[in-house]
Write a structure and sequence with these properties.
496 residues, alpha/beta, Rossmann fold, six-stranded mixed sheet, five-stranded parallel sheet, 16 strands, binds pyridoxal-5'-phosphate
Length: 496
């Protein structure tokens, strides 16, 4: 059965999956959602005999129906290969009563790799399917992490180029080194004399610049974006929940059909939405535990039915979750509103003008699958330390937010179902905070030096991603002013 996609703000116009991947955002500003959420056509037992790549195919074929079997398998095999440091791709580790689903074994040792390693292939396949002859130019502004994950995903993918702008003095040393050492002739990394907002505004301006679009088109290029609302990022994220369940089944930790709970450290609401889709496709998930840091807009939303971003923005030790507008929540709002596009559009309009909206009682009833809670900075630190002291297992700050919320949930409800916690970053990505938490910090050491010490403490080998940047050659040295961004793009593409 063919699955089509519509905008959450106007469902009149349907597009195919590949068109939705190419466009990213709908023209009305809405997000593409499938017109129906298909059910698995293999049993859980059948899936438990499959590899990660095979499970990926079985899940993705149901939602990306206009890709052929060959196209999809080709995308999957190019994405989930030796770039990952384990054949399992997303292994489970048991510690203190929960299973940690480690989503950080890719190139940048954080979970964005799970989607960004396949998005370039889905995109270029979509371009060819839709008779787009131009090369795709990905433009991204980054505050650190997404930029590197996108660079790693698009590097050397034929038919694409990627240009990343970062605030010259606004990213960590490790993040900067990761980006400026990026290989690939189609990659270009530029520091700007400005902050992240200015970088992002500069990129948005270029996306909206019709004259520039025409120049690019004449030279055989067109812009696209790799941001987290693309369904080409959402669909691959459903896979690892299915995979995790089937590994538990295979190892006889559960029986087929037995319900589990899933806990997700949440920012933009993409990762947990993927788990919700997995549940709707037939994966036996009981509760979805949505974990926030001190930017607890979502916790308040689940408790009151009011989404209100009018509050102080806090910088925490889990920066990838420092978000006040969780863009992907719009897909859930659309669904719990009974796929009412006009109602959803009205909520989003209110969010834009007043910074808040309140859902109806009826809609709140449809949120029964979710439990929301949050962890303070102290609680996050304590969770890392306690788990380490009890088991020797070291988790990063984002994962710790989830572990803390899981502990709160269990204490509150007594629910002791088998639980999977999405582990979204390697502790090596946030070494300083992690070492502070376990009482092993040393201010005299640089972040890179501290990794050696973490390796001794955690008894885990330093990931290749960190080893690489120690010695790698700096390949990207361009720095520009904010208003020079368009010219820098033209120069890189050799159009004048
Ligand atoms: C992006 C990110 C998150 C949040 O994921 P969302 O899909 O935005 O909710 C959590 N942890 C880490 C390490 C991340 O990079």
């Amino acid at each position: 059965m063919e699955v089509k996609y519509v905008s959450t703000r106007n469902k009149a116009e349907q597009v195919t999956a590949s068109q939705a991947v190419l466009r990213g955002l709908a023209t009305d500003g809405g997000l593409y959602v499938p017109t129906t959420i298909p059910k698995f056509d293999k049993t859980l037992e059948e899936l438990s005999d499959m590899t990660y790549q095979e499970v990926a195919y079985e899940v993705m074929k149901l939602l990306l129906t206009d890709y052929t079997e060959e196209e999809l398998k080709n995308c999957i095999n190019r994405a989930y290969d030796e770039k990952f440091d384990t054949e399992e791709i997303a292994p489970l580790t048991y510690a203190d009563g929960a299973y940690y689903l480690e989503l950080f074994h890719g190139k940048t040792i954080a979970f964005k790799d799970m989607a960004l390693s396949i998005l370039p292939h889905l995109m270029i396949t979509a371009a060819r399917k839709n008779q787009v002859k131009n090369d795709i130019v990905i433009l991204t502004a980054t505050s650190g992490d997404t930029g590197k994950a996108a660079l790693a995903g698009f590097a050397d993918v034929e038919g694409t180029k990627i240009i990343v702008f970062y605030p010259k003095d606004g990213v960590s040393d490790i993040q900067k080194r990761q980006m400026v050492t990026q290989t690939g002739d189609n990659t270009f990394v530029v520091g700007i004399n400005g902050n992240f907002d200015q970088a992002q505004t500069g990129v948005k301006k270029m996306f909206g610049d019709k004259e520039m679009a025409a120049e690019l088109n004449a030279a055989g290029y067109q812009f696209s974006s790799a941001n987290s609302i693309n369904i080409g990022r959402l669909v691959p994220q459903i896979v690892y929940y299915v995979y995790a369940y089937t590994r538990l089944l295979k190892e006889e930790k559960i029986t087929a059909g037995q319900e589990i709970n899933v806990t997700v450290p949440t920012g933009n609401f993409g990762n947990i939405l993927a788990a919700y889709y997995a549940k709707n496709m037939g994966l036996p998930i009981a509760k979805l535990l949505c974990a926030s840091n001190e930017n607890k807009v979502l916790f308040d939303f689940f408790g009151t039915g009011v989404y209100d971003k009018n509050r102080e923005f806090k910088l925490t030790s889990s920066p990838s979750m420092d978000i006040l507008i969780s863009s992907n929540l719009e897909r859930l709002i659309y669904r719990i509103a009974g796929e009412d596009d006009a109602a959803n559009a009205a909520f989003m309009k209110a969010l834009q003008s007043d910074g808040k909206y309140e859902i109806t009682e009826e809609m709140r009833k449809n949120l029964a699958d979710f439990y929301g809670n949050y962890a303070t900075e102290e609680e996050t630190t304590k969770t890392i330390r306690d788990l380490y002291e009890k088991t020797g297992y070291v988790i990063d700050t984002h994962t710790a937010v989830a572990a803390c919320v899981y502990n709160k949930y269990k204490a509150e409800t007594g629910d002791d179902k088998v639980t999977v916690i999405a582990s979204t970053a390697s502790p090596y990505k946030f070494t300083r905070s992690v070492m502070q938490a376990i009482g092993e910090d040393d201010a005299a050491l640089s972040d890179l030096e501290l990794t050696d010490k973490l390796s001794e403490v955690a008894k885990v080998e330093i990931p290749g991603a960190i080893e690489e940047i120690r010695s790698a050659e700096v390949r990207h040295k361009t720095i520009c002013e904010v208003d020079e961004m368009p010219q820098v793009v033209r120069d890189f593409l050799q159009i004048s």
